[in-house]
# Entry
Amino acid sequence: MSRAVSKATAVFAVIVSLLSVWLPMPAAAADPFTGYLMAHFTGESATGEQIYLAHSKDGLRWNDLNNGSPVLVSTVGTRGVRDPAIVRSPAGDRYWIIATDLRIAGGTSWSDAAERGSKSLVVWESRDLVNWSAPWLVNVAGAISGAGNAWAPEAIYNPATGDYVVYWATNTVVNGAYKHRIYYSRTRDFRSVTTPQVFIERSGRQGIIDTQIVEVPGSVGGYRYYRASADGHITIEGANSILGSWTNIGNLSHMGISNGTGGGNVVEGPMWAQFNGRNEWNLWLDQFATGRGYMPITSANLGSTGNFRTRSDYSTGTSRKRHGSILNITAAEESRVLARWGNSVPVNRIQSYNVQDRYVRHVNMDVRIDANVSPAQDAQFRLVPGLANNSGYVSFESVNYPGHFLRHYGYDFVLAPDDGSTVFRADATFRRVAGLADSSWTSFQSYNFPDRYIRHQNYLLRLDPITDATGRGDATFRVTN
# Structure
């Protein structure tokens, strides 16, 4: 190669490098989707208003992940979440879960929630679908005069503007009509949002709460985007731009399906999902009025509501699924999710050796040993690979507070969320060794203080050096189911 050619090649490489910084590059071709991930909540039980996940291979039959326990727990706002939506970035390198900040099980009435509820959404962020940030609040409705709440959030990437459209329902008075309308803001990071604008309003006093948009390839049926909304009916609309003009296609009353108007099967929480590899979609509808949970109706052409048909070949798993969203996932994403939450890590209790009717449990984030633990999940843990060292070490992850681990702090024990720090992960990591009082049982040696072991004293868990027979008994446990 001549020096001239070599120099030209180098210059060209520099130009390409600069262009990659200056110009937005298209995302790499997406890997094919191989499965489906559903985020949902389950209801108004003690832990029902948190983030649950379910997995499906065919888009019709679902299995609960994490042994039916929540995978994320809100520690902000009302400390409860409903109506979760999963959002993937166009490049597939970042994910968000956004949800309603609401916990009816905490004693809030529906009227209080609608008229004086949280105006913020709860947000989590992840790079891989399995390791999630701590949750944060984003105040989306605070700038709306008289806003009573912010419910049922959704988000979709808008290629026309290069950011995300976040939309939700807010209850307020406009032109004398007090009702829910769908508002929207734009965001790039789900932390700062633009001033909210009205997105959908129905005529008269008809409110609208639940709406979800799906993008379809090739404008199947005549439009690029379709949305389904719970507004007395389940109304289907189409558009070629997210923030442009929407056309009413019809509703599902001819199928005996409504959102309260005209009776029939009364549903809410419309949830779209395209079948992998083909132009066919399920619209999942929550049969909340009868408590039967989600059912799918299927269409290969969303341009007419007459193309929908009911299905009976589906299963939603063990837990009841309430308003959520479905993400089509690649083989790599599916592998990570199933490795993390695919029910492969058993649920265990930690039994005391010398007080055998008592088990390690958390209560108000403190840790002790008790008998007759209620709720039972307070004494259930997964022994996962050690956060600081996964070779021969374990960490104790709470079943009903996923992402929270037993850690020592000042030699006392607490249940705390993993903050990702080196100190936290070392404090939450232990070597599983032969029991100090009985080698057929187990003791747990501290990773960062190897001269100390987990033991109970006056029924409270501590991290102490063990120097006598009492200490050896206190530091000995059985891992059981």
Observations:
- The CA atoms of residues 368 and 460 lie 4 Å apart.
